[in-house]
Design brief:
Number of helices: 8
Largest sheet: 8 strands, mixed
Strand content: 15-25%
Strand order of the largest sheet: 2-3-5-4-8-9-10-11
Number of strands: 12
Radius of gyration: 18 Å
Length: 304
């Protein structure tokens, strides 16, 4: 996989995106998310998990009891956030890149009901001599992510396990749920280029696993594909399925999201909207099927 190197010199604000010509006259471009990051990163503790095939895995863990957002001994959900390609190079800041940081705030913790534990594992990503990504998430990580999840479950009173992620983290969210369907109660793959088959989705439905798939139709990396329409439709009609495929990925101010880091990727980065809880700043929901945001979706799952 070749990934553009995002140096400080290539970061340019307000570059006209290639899809701008498709906007309606009433629309506008928005360059900033509706939340401020890097404000609760200190609430995530760093751990290391032994992993022979990939190299030991660093993961960050938010203990809701330690941070005062959950009661001792109260079973609460465990959220596993999987980051996208190249994000691990930023170390702990990857907690934000993965979409996890805001879920450690008092507001989100309260809205999820009784709080939630959060884990953010990092892939041991590498670049070749030309600066291209040559090592990231793949099937070697499956058993180790399973072990990390099971370790947390053995040490804390976990009620439900929900895995979420964007881009290649979306692929891993699908992959882990399909590989270990008895481990997860819900998955939220975002902007994933991989889509399961209908037969695989039927298996998840039989296991009573909740599925929330989200992807913008103008995703710059072509994650939305018309040939997957049958799969999207099947997710939408699943007993516990939600398929959120808006025409435009938007920020909290209702503007169409643009993010330029050497390449335009604002429509691909729906994980930013997930971290904004899929709620606009005026209090209206991004998706009518998720009227109380992702936190409300998690609360509903935890109370089943």
């Amino acid at each position: 996989m070749k990934v553009t190197e995002f140096s400080e010199n290539t970061k340019v604000d307000h570059v006209s995106p290639p899809w701008e010509k498709y906007l309606s006259e009433d629309d506008f471009i928005s360059y900033l998310p509706s939340y401020k990051g890097n404000i609760v990163l200190d609430r995530f503790d760093e751990y290391t998990h032994k992993a022979d095939k990939t190299g030991d895995i660093t993961y960050y863990f938010y203990d809701a009891v330690k941070n005062g957002t959950a009661k001792q001994g109260e079973p609460i959900p465990l959220l596993i956030f999987i980051h996208g390609a190249t994000n691990s190079f930023d170390g702990k800041i990857c907690v934000g890149h993965s979409g996890a940081e805001m879920f450690a705030t008092e507001k989100y913790q309260h809205e999820m009901g009784k709080g939630a534990y959060i884990a953010v594992p990092l892939a041991n990503e590498k670049k070749d001599e030309k600066g291209n990504l040559c090592d990231s998430w793949d099937e070697r990580y499956y058993p180790y992510l399973k072990e990390i999840t099971e370790k947390i479950k053995s040490e804390y009173p976990v009620s439900k396990v929900i895995i979420l992620g964007g881009s290649s983290g979306g692929y891993m969210s699908w992959a882990m749920t399909l590989e270990y369907p008895d481990l997860f109660d819900a998955c939220a793959p975002v902007s994933s280029g991989f889509m399961p088959t209908i037969e695989q989705l039927k298996m998840l439905e039989e296991k009573d696993i909740s599925v929330l798939y989200a992807c913008g139709k103008h995703d710059e990396f072509n994650c939305y594909r018309a040939e997957c329409e049958d799969v999207y439709n099947y997710i939408a009609q699943m007993k516990n399925g939600i398929c959120y495929i808006p025409e435009w990925t938007r920020n909290g101010d209702h503007g169409v999201a643009s993010l330029y880091f050497g390449i335009e990727m604002g429509q691909h980065c729906m994980i930013t909207q997930l971290q904004a809880n899929l709620m606009y700043t005026d209090g209206s929901p991004y998706c009518d099927q998720i009227p109380n945001g992702i936190t409300g979706w998690i609360k509903d799952i935890s109370e089943k």
